[in-house]
Amino acid sequence: MSWQRVTVIGVGLIGGSLALALRRAGSGAEIVGCGRSAASLRRAAGLGVVDRWTTDVAEAVSGADLVVLGVPLGAVRETLESLRGALAPGAVVTDVGSAKGCVLADAEAVFGAVPPWLVPGHPIAGNERSGVEAASAELFRDRRVILTPAEHTAPQAVARVRALWEEVAGAQVLCTDAAHHDQVLAATSHLPHMLAFGLVDTLARWEGVEEIFAYAAGGFRDFTRIASSDPVMWRDICLANREALLAALHRYRADLEDLTALVEAGDASGLELLFRNAKETRDRYLPLFER
Amino acid sequence: MSWQRVTVIGVGLIGGSLALALRRAGSGAEIVGCGRSAASLRRAAGLGVVDRWTTDVAEAVSGADLVVLGVPLGAVRETLESLRGALAPGAVVTDVGSAKGCVLADAEAVFGAVPPWLVPGHPIAGNERSGVEAASAELFRDRRVILTPAEHTAPQAVARVRALWEEVAGAQVLCTDAAHHDQVLAATSHLPHMLAFGLVDTLARWEGVEEIFAYAAGGFRDFTRIASSDPVMWRDICLANREALLAALHRYRADLEDLTALVEAGDASGLELLFRNAKETRDRYLPLFER
Q1: Positive or negative CA dihedral for B175, B179, B184, B186?
Q2: How much is the pLDDT for A208?
Q3: pLDDT for B183-194, tens place per residue?
Q4: What is the structure's pLDDT at B137?
Q5: A173: distance to nearest CA of chain B, Å?
Q6: pLDDT computed for residue B214 by the predictor
Q7: Do B247 and B166 lie in a common domain?
Q8: Within this chain, do residues B70 and B163 fall inside the same structural domain, yes or no?
Q9: Are A166 and A186 within one domain?
Q10: Which of B220, B228, B278 sits opposite A192 (nearest CB)?
Q11: A–B: how many Cβ contacts below 8 A?
Q12: Which residues contact B88 (CB under 8 A, 6 or more apart)?
């Protein structure tokens, strides 16, 4: 399976890494970069991540057989509007957003129905860094990518996007429906990000913040690593996956209230049981995400 | 500065690592292990961490010029009771607990007043592992150790414990008072542990927990690493630092309520501002705890 021309709209950590993976695979595809910031696209070209670039979406997707949307979720709808009517026949479009129901809703709003050539996707990769400078052809190696095709998504389009992730990027593809994806990711990713951002925000307003951080150790560094993630990307994820995230937040806050009550009551056996359950659960499932 | 005989009561990750650091420093001190579990002490001797061992505290501390309490905070009081009257003249006692006010209170309860030879200490080190098998002579290298001497603690005792941590273990010693230590650690360590234990506990009771963890990525692994910590140790820390931890929990829960309200309202600029503040704060202070 090969590509003639791949257009990456939003050449950041994820879009840039996929472009580098295409290069490393020797796909021979011309890689066209697109985005809002000419300065950032110029850097991407300078780093050899894209062959050429333009800030005009219609021009960028012209003649491409694959279009990858690497933009924040809040920019998906206007990007779809910009590329409407400019796609080549047979072109496949995929995205990399951390929520999927909103992408289907955006597509429906722009096209009247979810087009058969749109394959929503989400690589469970990335880290707290952002920007094309952090891109790496190895970013997706052995990671999971979740595709959430809709009812009328073309099976050939899904097959082509699957091949992109598996054969080019070295990832492992799973398919599920968008609503289910959004619920699971709210639990495993969006909620933890809220807790980490929230913790650093709380401590930042604490008296003696300098000393607080001076006393912090490795556990704190790891716990808050995700609080160094891109604020705009996470703002958009919160808005895009609002319902599922709220459900997770409510659930967590109720449980944290129970935990606080155990501390308040000095309930030694209740606390030990909770900690033991958590430790045993994490240790049991660790092999699943120790990668 | 040298030691003739060092007794470590509680030869786990921290106590065992300090024993190994003493060996590596070629101090020549005889190292006596003590604890409740003969099996675990036998393993410590087998690993060469201690020269000899006994489960009898009075026997263990006899003739020692340094006694290190490596027991969970909940066992400090009974350990102090067991060693009362058995210490050699001039012996110095220190501990490694994650809360310090409770150690002073225990000492006061056992001895009527905090004895001048007791130097409460807390190495900001360790990890989610436990037990003597995880011990390493390098565990404290370049880490901070906080000593919280009381009003009548002997300056020579503090100097000897400082030398132990700095010259033998390669750590950096800071002194502060116990109440201040407990407030700062509640914020940077005890609260994050509650949030991580709480998250895994919440997810463990989620429907489809297997799939939840299968979709988790590196961010989740790092965020929840501290939820694999020792349940008994953390139960004791919660009880020992209850007041300061409750204050931190209440503060955090109020802030998380505000964050939830931003998500509920779909407040894009409010969310972005919060995330940006958190990211900038973390990135600014990162050099302080990137060690």
Answers
A1: positive
A2: 81
A3: 999 999 999 999
A4: 96
A5: 11
A6: 81
A7: no
A8: yes
A9: no
A10: B220
A11: 295
A12: B61, B62, B63, B64, B65
Contacts of A187 (CB under 8 A, 6+ apart): A248, B203, B206, B212
Residues 6+ apart with CB under 8 A from A174: A144, A145, A146, A147
What is the domain-level CATH number for residue B65? 3.40.50.720
CB contact under 8 A, B256 and A195: yes
Percent of chain B beyond pLDDT 70? 99
Strands (DSSP E) contained in B64-175 are: 66-69, 92-95, 118-119, 121-124, 144-147, 172-175
Angle among Cα A208, A213, A214 to the nearest 5 degrees reads 95
Domain with B211, as residue range(s), is 180-289
Total number of domains in chain B: 2
Residue B234 and residue A275: Cβ atoms within 8 Å? yes
CA distance B31 to B33: 7
Name the residue in chain A with its Cα closest to that of B240.
Answer: A266
Sheet holding A121-123, edge to edge: A121-123, A144-147, A172-175
Same domain, B110 and B228: no
Which residue among B160, B176, B192 closes a domain? B176
Assess whether A147 and A259 both reside in one domain. no
Nearest by CB: A260 against B218, B253, B290 = B253
One domain, residues B11 and B142: yes
- Place A128 in a pLDDT band, splitting at 50, 70 and 90: confident
Tens-place pLDDT, residues B135-153 = 999 999 999 999 999 999 9
Q: What percent of chain B has pLDDT over 90?
A: 86
Q: How many C-beta atoms lie closer than 10 Å to residue A189's C-beta?
A: 26
pLDDT at position B291 over 60: no
The arithmetic mean of pLDDT across residues B270-291, rounded, is 87
**Mean pLDDT within A270-288:** 92
Is residue B83 over pLDDT 90? yes
Rounded distance between C-alpha atoms, residue B17 and residue B137, angstroms:
5
- Same domain assignment for residues A116 and A152: yes
Domain boundary at B111, B145, B176, which?
B176
Task: State how far the Cα of B282 lies from the Cα of B192, in Å rounded to an integer.
Answer: 14
CATH code: domain of residue B257: 1.10.3660.10
Q: Based on the fold, state whether residues A54 and A104 are members of the same structural domain.
A: yes
